[in-house]
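Researcher: I'd like a structural prediction for the single chain below. Treat it as a standalone chain; there are no partners to consider.
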Amino acid sequence: MNEQNNTIASVCVYCASSTKIPEVYFDAAKELGRLLGERGLRVINGAGNIGLMRAVSDATLEAGGRVTGVIPRFMVEQDWYHKGLTELIEVETMHERKRRMAELSDAVIALPGGCGTLEELLEIITWKQLGLYLNPIVILNVNHYYDPLLSLFERAIEESFMRPRHAAMWAVADTPEEAVRSLYAQPRWDASFRKIAAI
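Model: Treating it as a single chain, here is the predicted structure.
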C-alpha cells in the first residue's frame, strides 16, 4: 500500500432511505453531513429525498457544503429525488448510478442501511479487492449496527474466503467524527494487490 496521505475532495455516503428507523441513526447522519460540509468536502450520494440520505444532504448544505446526487431516471419520474442539491446527475440504470458515484468520489463512508446500502458497500469493497477502487472505505458502525457484518468478514478470513490482508480494505468508526478522521488515516490501496484476490 502507498503510504502517502490521501487527497480527498469528495466523499460518497451510502445510507438508508427509510424514515422509520431509530433517531440515533438520524443524529449520526446529520452530524456526518455537518462535519463533511464544514470541511468543504463534497458529498456524493443517491439523491434521495427521505431517510438518512436526506438528513446527510440537508446537514451538508446547511453547513455550507455541496452535494451531488446521482439517481436513475425512473426514480426522478417517481419524484424520489432531493430538489435542493447542488448538482443532480440523472442516469439510466442502478448499475450506472453506482459506477458514477464511485467515479466521482475520493472516499466512501457507509452509514447503516438496508439491502441497497449493504449491496453498495459490498460492491465497493469487492472493487477495491480487485484493484478497481483504491480509495478509503469507512464503515460507520453507529449503534453497533454493522457488528454482524464485521463478524461475517472475520469468519470469511478465518475460513479462507478472504485473505487476512483484505481486512485492511476498510476501516471501522463508531462516530461520525472518527469516520471523517479515518478517511485520512488509511493508506491508498495498491492496485497490484489484485493478484491476491484469488486464494
